[in-house]
Amino acid sequence: MSQKTFLIFFGPPGSGKGTQADMLAKKLNLPVVSPGELLRHEEDSNTAIGRKIKPIIDSGKLVPDEIIEKIILKCFKRFDARAGIVFDGYPRKRAQLDFLIKKLEKIAGKPACRQGRQDYVRAILINVSDKEVKRRLGGRRVCDCGAAYHLIYNPPKKSGLCDLCGKKLYIRHDDKPKLIADRLKLYHQKIKPLLDYFEKSDKLIEIDGEQNINQVQNNIIKELAERAMYDNN
Ligand code: AMP
What we know:
Blueprint: E1 5-10, H1 17-28, E2 32-33, H2 35-44, H3 48-58, H4 65-78, E3 84-88, H5 94-108, E4 121-127, H6 130-138, E5 140-142, E6 148-150, H7 177-200, E7 204-208, H8 213-226
Parallel strand pairs: 1-3, 1-4, 2-3, 4-7
Antiparallel strand pairs: 5-6
Helix pairs in contact: 1-8, 2-3, 6-7
The chain binds adenosine monophosphate.
């Protein structure tokens, strides 16, 4: 595909948007930019930024825009952004959207969200109900070695223990019920103006996220292909 493709994944925590973004990016041969992952890496590496953001992430709140902007600019430098990028979990609020659109328009040299088909930006919303989010995140168990399980969908062979290293599994801090509820509330509060922005120029693709992973991916590809943003050949 010769045109630029910037794809922005939206969806509540636990919607599987990270998994879908990764799968699609591989097929399109594009890099994925996920501030959530990059922030967790800062935390794990115990950098100055990592120490600063830990309490914010642990409380389910959003990290300040200046930190996110620095991360995004670094990614634009690291990847050849001229071909395109798949964004997972960014932007998450109006100010971040404005920052991103300005940046993309500079790279592309033309407006990002004109009405019409000759364009290079699409937003993909993975719809999952709050009830399903609570079921998915509430059942997630992780291990220090990086392995992740789900009590219903992907249980470990021995209850409570990691299949890979045998260590005790635990609940990620921000997967505790009160924090899941807070993260969902924040998501619903912030997402509306972002979806409105893309919907107005007919750039929003909505996908039912309550199907299996491959079905969700196939539906995304189908929708993109219909808009000449995915070449099946
Ligand atoms: P995620 O893995 O995308 O759910 O992100 C985990 C956490 O990282 C979020 O709960 C936020 O605290 C932080 N975070 C991720 N992306 C952003 C963003 N675009 N803006 C601000 N904070 C973010």
